[in-house]
Amino acid sequence: MKKFLLCCLLLVLFSLPQVAQALQKSFYFTTSDSVKLYVRIAGEGKPCLFVHGGPGSWPKIYYALGGDITEKDMTMIYLDQRGSGRSGGDANTDYSLNRMVKDFEELRNHLKYKKWFVMAHSFGGIEATEYAYQHPASINGLVLVATTLHMQSSLESYVKEGARVLGQPESDFRQPGAPVGQTLGQVVTKLNEKGLMYKMMYPNKEMFAQMNAVMDTTLNWHFGSKVWGLPEYEQDFTKKSASIKVPVLAFAGKYDYAVGPEHYKLFKFPNAKYKTMDTGHCPYQEKPEEFRKYVKSFIARLD
Known about the structure:
Mean pLDDT: 91
Number of helices: 11
Structural class: alpha/beta
Strand order of the largest sheet: 1-2-4-3-5-6-7-8
Strand content: 15-25%
Largest sheet: 8 strands, mixed
Number of strands: 8
CATH topology of the largest domain: Rossmann fold
CATH architecture of the largest domain: 3-Layer(aba) Sandwich
Radius of gyration: 21 Å
Order of helices and strands: HEEEHEHEHEHHHHHEEHH
Number of domains: 2
Helix content: 25-40%
């Protein structure tokens, strides 16, 4: 009897490391160029990489504001991109689009997933689209949540709507020959002064306050500060979307002026479904159950 109990105890002790490993929710993954990336895994079901926006934000904007509802149907892999959030990266780090895509693929291989879904929000749509273009065999399906695929188009939409919200002509903000980014800066400054910034992302001011409460600008923001100097991100990725054959589910918000409520109409994916919701820029926060329903239906029919 004593020998039997001892064997049972040894089995329990030997199993403890495996149990601890199974419960592990977050870790740091080191890329081939020695950058440490923060990864958080939660949920169960088919694996799905979440590509956050910003540029330079972090995934908590998604999972802390209602997006965690998709963890009921998928294993969500939340990656803080290099130079963002809790990940490493400094002024000398490679932030090229190819390097970002390589990070995604290296993480997939590290986790030993043959394929996974990829979900992107806002600016993350550019990175996710390039990833799907370069590595279609790695992706079961692509979920684009209020994403831009052409920064110039989205910034122009923002300026136009911002001027309308302010009740001023666009000419008040545009200087001859000035880049749209400079014009945008003037519009944003004025919107902030008047407490109207929320109208660019939400019809509801309370939602904007919730989002700001989750944002943490004390974290790494190197990518967010460097990306604007990299012209490759300014490409028109809607053209590239025409050659991406993986199944796509794309969400658009009727009141999303951060990327433009009709920006999705420029997409050219040959195998796409589009859902326009009665929301702003964050449908997972504003209407989580409806958002989950569409995502769940999409992934259910794909291997």
